[in-house]
Design brief:
6 strands, alpha+beta, six-stranded mixed sheet, about 150 residues
Length: about 150
């Protein structure tokens, strides 16, 4: 968690690449700190030919040449010592921020890249895995906003 925050988040903010949001804990605790964080950026989703999505979902994505603008949850993390459920709270706040942008600017696709063990977790939240893993072993999953 700290590597990204210490080494990249501020640089990405200054260069207008992304925005990082911190969620603090510590209400009534002697050592408050960062409970979790997420980073949101804009990206262009390149949909692979073997996307594994229904034709209805693909139609709703408003693709042009298998490409579409999307919101990217580039980083999302919680402190390991936080209680169960904090990760879901972090994700819900991230999606609320994206939905606010969606209402203001449009766009309906949310992307997240994850490793194999997290695919089921994100699918329970409504994300759909597309394609095969990247060279770095990450799977891309998408969520359509209504």
């Amino acid at each position: 968690m700290q590597d990204f925050l210490h080494n990249k988040a501020i640089t990405f903010e200054k260069r207008d690449i992304s925005r990082t949001y911190l969620m603090m804990d510590g209400q009534g605790t002697p050592a408050p700190g960062i409970a979790g964080y997420f980073t949101i950026a804009l990206t262009v989703l390149n949909l692979p030919d073997d996307k594994g999505l229904s034709s209805t979902v693909v139609r709703r994505m408003n693709l042009s040449n298998n490409r579409a603008p999307a919101y990217l949850i580039g980083q999302i993390s919680k402190r390991d010592s936080m209680e169960r459920g904090v990760g879901l709270k972090v994700m819900n706040v991230a999606l609320d921020v994206i939905k606010s942008g969606h209402e203001t600017f449009g766009g309906r696709i949310v992307c997240i890249d994850c490793r194999q063990p997290l695919i089921d977790y994100y699918e329970k939240l409504g994300f759909k895995k597309i394609g095969h893993p990247s060279d770095s072993g990450l799977y891309k999953s998408v969520l359509l906003l209504s």
